[in-house]
């Protein structure tokens, strides 16, 4: 970049752009062939000064300008560890713990570092709280059916009851997580009870869906038998 002052009559030289990878390769090739710097400069379309500097300092780019980051790699690793240990903490709590570890940085800087790491503040997925035995039983069932064909699955009707929360503003705390971590156990919100809720039973298969049954009481053996008799079996007869 060059600017000219007509009143004073001098030229101010600004920073020039770094050489591209193609220009550097061209300069290196011609330099190995024994060409002069003046001849080399014409081929990539740069100044003789740029050619000279590149040859003298090798292929290293010039020292970058700009302010140095106020946090070190160790500080950033500490921040990532804090977030992963308890991803449900808010920004204020995370910043307090981070600064307590000896880091001097603002909330804005901390938030920027978290974004650089890939963390985003999201509403957590809600999953039933399962114990180890329940996990093992579900895994064993899945392994037993993993080789079933589409024809075999088409003969199966799935039914289940679920509780739906009908109150608003009950999402709870948000979670800091990275892309692809929505189903990570440490980023899930366990569902154990639902205030102002309604329980609904339903069924589905490859042939279609069954009717919805709204349950007014807890599902015990008698209630479940009544659901099967009045909803499940009629739905199966209709679909198959």
TrEMBL record:
Coiled coil: none annotated. It holds the Pfam family HTH_Tnp_Tc3_2. Residues 48-70 are annotated as: Disordered. Residues 54-70 have a biased composition (Basic residues). GO terms for biological process: DNA integration; DNA transposition. GO terms for molecular function: DNA binding. Residues 80-145 form the Transposase Tc1-like domain. This is Transposase Tc1-like domain-containing protein. It comes from Esox lucius.
